[in-house]
Structures are given as structure tokens and as C-alpha cells.
């Protein structure tokens, strides 16, 4: 059931990426966030209820709640225009846990180590954008960069991974981990290029980063309600 939830997460990241680059409205993305968030809370709960307190199952399951709360919170921000700064600071906790699992997974599963690192980067971007309100770094529009990063890596790190895991063909070799790292670096570079094009080189881009409703954003920086 955990892999089923992971399969759905990729779609939520992809759609929120489209919001960040201005192709989908924040309210238009709210339903998928609420649905995926609910699934990421309900499915782990079902697993834990049936685990009989097995420490291995508990440790493998509880991180799903972090991401479930993420999408539920996103959905509420998009619908009710809640001040996103609290969510931004919450993202630091998620990013730290993801970084911990990335380091922990290096020896046993290099591919998932890269995936955890990718998620750590995503949630760090949410913190910088929504918690600190930093919209640009030099000439790089962080809202658009985050959007393309989610679009390019959301489905590969979540949906594709879930399909491979569900079919029992998950690679754990060092070579596979190296390929995953190359994909991460290439997607990061491509996100920079695409963000410069989609932002149009303008100093102010009126696009809601990572699914924040348009009404609470000025120049792509989330504003308090």
C-alpha cells in the first residue's frame, strides 16, 4: 500500500510544478493535493494498524505522514489562501528527514539515496520560497526553477519508482545509483534553462510558487494573508 501512495505522489508533484510555472491555477491543483494527501495519511495508517508493532514496518512507514501532511496543507493553502510561511518552515523538517534517509540509504540502496536527496532539495526549495519568501537568487527565478524541478523529477522519483517496486524490479547497484545521480544533475541543469525561458527574463513574475494561490503572491513572493 505504501508503494500505491508513492505512485500517486508523483502526479501531485507534477501538477504543483505546473502551478509554479503558471500553466495551472492554484485552486485547480487543490483537489489532487487533498486526494493524495489523504491517501498518504490513510494508507500508512492501515499498514501500521496491521503491523503488530513491528519496528521495521513502523520505521519504513512513518515518513509517509510527512508527505501526506505536505499535500493536505498545500490543498488548504490553495483553497483558503492560508499564510504559507508556516508550511515553509514545516518543509525544513521534511527536508531534514529526507536528507537523513538519503545518507542512511547510500550503502544499501544508492538509487533511493538519490531519490531521498531529490526530495530533500524539493522541500528545501519550499522552505526558501515559502518560509523565507526568497523569490530570486541572482537572475534565477526560484518559483519557476522549483516548478520545472518538480515537473521533471516528480514522476520519475515517485510514480516510476513505485511501478518498479510493485513489479519487483528495483535496481540497487552502484551503477544504477550513478545513473540516478546523473539524471538528478541533468534535470537540475535543465530546470535552470527552462526557468529562464518560462520566466521570460522579467524582474517580476506574478506566478504562485509551488501551488500557493495567486491572491497571496506578489512578484512570486508569498505574502501574509
Automatic annotation (TrEMBL):
Coiled coil: none annotated. It is found in: Cell membrane. The chain crosses the membrane at residues 6-25, 32-50, 62-80, 87-103, 115-135, 147-169, 175-194. Its main location: membrane. GO terms for cellular component: plasma membrane. CDD domains: UreI_AmiS_like_2. InterPro entries: AmiSUreI_transpt (IPR003211), AmiSUreI_transpt_sf (IPR038523). Keywords: Cell membrane, Membrane, Transmembrane, Transmembrane helix, Transport. It is a multi-pass membrane protein. Pfam families: AmiS_UreI. Belongs to the AmiS/UreI family. This is Amidate substrates transporter protein.
Amino acid at each position: 500500500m505504501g508503494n500505491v501512495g508513492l505512485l500517486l505522489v508523483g502526479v501531485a508533484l507534477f501538477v504543483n510544478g505546473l502551478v509554479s510555472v503558471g500553466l495551472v491555477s492554484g485552486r485547480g491543483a487543490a483537489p489532487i493535493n487533498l486526494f493524495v494527501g489523504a491517501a498518504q495519511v490513510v494508507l500508512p495508517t492501515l499498514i501500521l494498524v496491521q503491523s503488530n508493532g513491528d519496528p521495521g514496518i513502523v520505521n519504513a512507514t512513518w515518513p509517509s505522514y510527512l508527505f501526506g501532511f505536505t499535500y493536505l496543507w498545500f490543498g488548504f493553502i490553495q483553497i483558503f489562501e492560508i499564510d504559507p510561511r508556516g508550511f515553509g518552515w514545516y518543509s525544513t523538517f521534511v527536508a531534514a528527514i529526507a536528507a537523513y534517509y538519503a545518507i542512511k540509504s547510500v550503502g544499501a540502496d544508492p538509487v533511493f539515496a538519490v531519490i531521498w536527496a531529490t526530495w530533500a532539495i524539493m522541500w528545501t526549495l519550499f522552505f526558501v520560497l515559502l518560509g523565507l519568501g526568497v523569490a530570486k537568487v541572482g537572475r534565477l527565478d526560484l518559483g519557476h526553477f522549483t516548478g520545472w524541478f518538480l515537473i521533471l523529477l516528480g514522476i520519475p522519483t515517485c510514480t516510476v519508482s513505485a511501478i518498479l517496486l510493485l513489479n519487483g524490479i528495483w535496481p540497487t547497484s552502484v551503477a544504477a545509483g550513478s545513473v540516478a545521480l546523473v539524471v538528478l544533475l541533468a534535470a537540475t541543469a535543465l530546470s535552470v534553462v527552462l526557468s529562464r525561458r518560462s520566466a521570460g527574463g522579467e524582474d517580476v513574475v506574478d506566478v504562485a510558487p509551488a501551488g500557493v494561490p495567486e491572491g497571496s503572491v506578489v512578484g512570486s513572493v508569498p505574502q501574509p494573508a
